[in-house]
Amino acid sequence: MQESWNGYVNDDDRALLKVIKFASPTSAGADCIDPDCTWVEQWVHRAGPRKQIYFEPQYVKAGIVTCGGLCPGLNDVIRQIVLTLEKYGVKNIVGIQHGFRGFFENHLGEVLLNRHVVQNINLAGGSFLGVSRGGANISDIVDSIQARRLDMLFVLGGNGTHAGANLIHEECRKRKLKVSIVGVPKTIDNDILLMDKTFGFDTAVEAAQRAINSAYIEAHSAFHGIGLVKLMGRSSGFITMHASLSSGQVDICLIPEVPFTLDGPNGVLRHLEHLIETKGFALICVAEGAGQEHLQQSNATDASGNTVLSDIGVHLQQKMKSHFKEIGIHSDVKYIDPTYMVRAVRANASDAILCTVLGQNAVRHLSPSLAFCHTNPSISCCLSHWFLMETCRFMVPLLGSVASQPAYATRTMSTCRYQKSSSPQG
């Protein structure tokens, strides 16, 4: 007797976040809640296609918006959301231009999206819909959502974007609107707790290799050459660390997580002297957020509310030049800052696959029990399992930047359309 295959995910399926039981707080990587390292199971909802869907697809109008800075893979996520929505039978899909501004800037109209429009947008970097920072007036945005009669809004963005998405979620709840706010947080920094990897990270690391290789050639070819490369990474140094490790040429890697000193017997400058004496050249890679304690702090913030960082790259360049001049040793410092070049590129193969699954699962979670909820789950991947992580306000999400608030689905207090027909498998 042939067994039937079931490709649907049960709403009660759970994934275990941590699979290691640490015996002692002194074990490498141990994360314990008490001295005895008591084992605490952490279960999350499994992501994937549900047998029953919440909305009647033929009546749905879905919107997609990309906010904040660029990230490799944005177009791949947009494309897959559209393709998956169409597979479910949704025909009315629109793009909101240039982030949240598209909701209240009159000259920014909706972009009609379908399979033919998005078919090849993944072949280019950037965002097909355009991006912008700030400019979010929550009441105006929700007014626009109501006026456009949107049933779903897919929000792709980082810290500020998802803080805004969470406020939209709360405003929709207050107005008792039947609108799902679906979050796909983005960050090339790969700095999300409990996440294996965020989209755009692999591409950024790969793009950084060209800058590091150029700095190596400059430093190796010059007499007492010193190559200095500054890469993106406000509060984490994953791009800098991975790019340095994969290059095999970097002598000094400076990241925000590890404090360092410039002067003194154990300082960076003294180690540079040693490298010049022994190797004849040196290569340094630094994250933009590293060493901020050595610089004059600014209280300024950007449009997304992020603190404006002082330039550690220029500071290091000047310190190295003045130091070697003072001790009477010739040096030839070459500084390369490819900051935006590592993100304004097309997603590589690894990120393209990640974005494809993200886009699919962003649509698939809208089952009767998950379409509207009190908390705000985000699509994530851990230990090769895709899941929905419910995060509370001001907690760190599993996909997006640190301290963002992913708004995955708004709660409704009114009656809703309910479709019992099966959702697409696969």
From TrEMBL:
Transmembrane segments: none
Domain Phosphofructokinase residue range list: 62-365
Any one GO MF annotation of this record: 6-phosphofructokinase activity
UniProt keywords, alphabetically: Allosteric enzyme, ATP-binding, Glycolysis, Kinase, Magnesium, Metal-binding, Nucleotide-binding, Transferase
Pfam families named in the record: PFK
A GO CC term assigned to this protein in UniProt: cytoplasm
Entries under InterPro entries matching the protein: PFKA, Phosphofructokinase_dom
Protein name: Phosphofructokinase domain-containing protein
Originating organism: Zizania palustris
